Amino acid sequence: MNHHDFFECLNAQFQDALPFVAYRKPNEDRVNAVFQNDDTLYETKDLSESGFVFAPFDDASKMVLMPLEQAEVDYCDAYEGEEVVTETSQLISSSEQKMAYMDTIEKALSTIEQTDLKKVVLSRPDYVSNENFQVFEVFKRLLSTYKTAFVYCWYHPKIGLWLGATPETLLKIEGQRMSTMALAGTQVYKGTTDVSWGNKEEEEQQFVTDYIVSNLEAEVEQVSTSERRTVRAGGLLHLQTQISARLGKDHTGLLQIVRALHPTPAVCGLPKAEAKAFILHHETYNREFYSGFMGELHFKKRQTRNTNRRNVENNVYATVKTVSNLYVNLRCMQVLANKVALYVGGGITKDSNPEAEWEETVNKTSTMKKVLF
């Protein structure tokens, strides 16, 4: 489908108040879409179905599914638009927001001092008016600006409208192979990825890697990790380690693996249970789907072994692999009745400086605000 028709279809589905998701995977050109045929709110309890899943931060809440059997799937090839040029944002957070956030950071620091809590990720919403907000224009700007991210626009009339560009993969499974990543540390991108990192960031990133590996070892086989590297996500840099493994013969399904990983230390903290309890008790709002996860669940991918076109018989040997691609819902926004909520957070450890942590959240929201208008 060409771009014009593709965006027309998205708009028609939106005007008809029918659920859809449009998304592009990291470093790919194709923009995919799932158009649900009715406005039923489907959920998945065990991640065994085929469809697009949209799951909240708190696993006590519903995981929403757009099932492939109740939907049409389409795509358009590369969307090339104007990249948004980075300028300093004109939108400034209020002093009340700052006081409230700093106060929660202080509580976290004293809890870290007195308990086993090592790291907790604290977040906050930042609101801007949606007076001139045009959903598909914003989606196009996200596509143009964040080439290396998972970029999406998700809508369900019974839940709402979310958009984002996340740098973090939760889980990728293709056949029996799985991979994930440990992501931590943030600094502003200034034209190069050849930068140095402080002890705090390197230590935090190592924490995250060790934690994920130890959690996965109970569920999968042959866990291995890559070298740590610096990656760019829009106007920010992060430290990343790739982690891969093999699903065991007797593995019990995706839910157990997702439970081992989600919520990740990048959105929750360490140890997970203590960090999550702190967040649910002390954050002054409900995260809903921010820092949850989303993506393709059990999509079928046909792979031909022989790429020589003349040898048609060999196409009989094409294999169909089941793939799942799940991403953590970071750098996202929720479109509300008269405002847009941008969600942002940072990891608090014993070495955190509240003022510097506040500045980090301001850097993160200002990169997102640029694509809004």
UniProtKB/TrEMBL annotation:
Residues covered by the Chorismate-utilising enzyme C-terminal domain: 98-364
Top-level taxon: Bacteria
Entry-linked Pfam families: Chorismate_bind (PF00425)
InterPro entries reported for this sequence: ADC_synthase, Chorismate_C
PANTHER family cross-referenced by the UniProt entry: ISOCHORISMATE SYNTHASE ENTC (PTHR42839)
Name of the protein in question: Chorismate-binding protein
Phylogenetic lineage: Bacteria, Pseudomonadati, Bacteroidota, Flavobacteriia, Flavobacteriales
